[in-house]
Design brief:
Dna Ligase, domain 1, Rossmann fold, 14 strands, alpha+beta, 6-stranded antiparallel sheet, 14 helices, D-amino Acid Aminotransferase, Chain A, domain 1, globular, 373 residues, 4-stranded parallel sheet
Length: 373
Amino acid sequence: MPHLSVLLLEGPPLAYHMAASLAQTPHVVVHCLSDEKSFAHLSRYFTSFLLHERFAEPVDLLALVKKVVVRTGAKVVLPVSERSTRWLNQHRSALEEFVAVPPLPSLETFEIVSDKRRLWEFQRDHGLSGAPTVYAVGARTRNAFENSSLEYPLLLKPSVGQASEGIMLIKTADELAVWKQSAGDDRREYIAQKYIPGRDIDCSLLSQDGEIVVHTVQQHASAESGATLEVFSGGEALEAVRPLIRTIGYSGIAHIDMRQDAADGGFTIVDFNPRFWASLFSSTCAGVNFPYLWCQLALKQPVAQPTFERIHHYSSSATLRHWVQRILHPLRVRPEFKWKNSSLPSALADPLPLLAKAGAQLRRAIQSNRLTL
């Protein structure tokens, strides 16, 4: 069977998770072109990890991508982050002359879903479910939060951001006043959303022209299970995101954050991430290899619908804790543990990045202690 060569544009940490997933499919080789160096370049999941300087002119990067595609024989180029998604979209026509590009959202759609304020406005204007939101720009206009109809507690978030950066739970008007005072001359746009008591639940998906091709749903596993996540398919969580995907005509990869209301069980979309996510490998363990399926769509190949049951996924650390607990408490009832639902085998098969990272952390800790002493 001929191998599939894939080029990932931009690097760690998400590129590592993508490469680890792609490596689960036989005959796939992965190359990475990044302007950021990290321990990921030591991974055996990358056939090559190429570093480049951040260019001022996009045409320079385009020429470099073409050079790398020719050298590696890459058939598909996949974006890793929001930045590379935007770049691929802007240069799609030129790229498609020498490499396949996967389905991506239009630039307008991409800008809407990447901005929490614009996403809320789109949901509101189209009668879709979304957390009630108000917004203000800069410290001097943040009295908009005080004059809004939102009730405490509320969540303050930068309108554009990722990985929970800058998100704060504000419980009282006094806490809001303290935050405003500490903000100083910060001119970023912030939004305030109604805080929904309940639990987090996420839907990961690959769609084309507004139709969801494959998906997984995930939530934090119960403490009793010892697992990291529960991963499953279908249900009300999927139906909660389908209207937004169809209405906006979304194409590509997405990870959508929701809250399930403790009072009525309803689902509310609170964030939309048009990129891969840190827990990607849990979906791969469940049988949905999103990066590989995205490659199939790029190559215009048919995508078979994966089928799987609800699984408990164990991170590497959760796997170790599980076996320690089994030794200490052998009679305790637990969900059935399956090695194929754990990240540890993949980590053990590729130990160098973790060992290098652990070594760097140890050196920093030693240096910090020396400075303290």
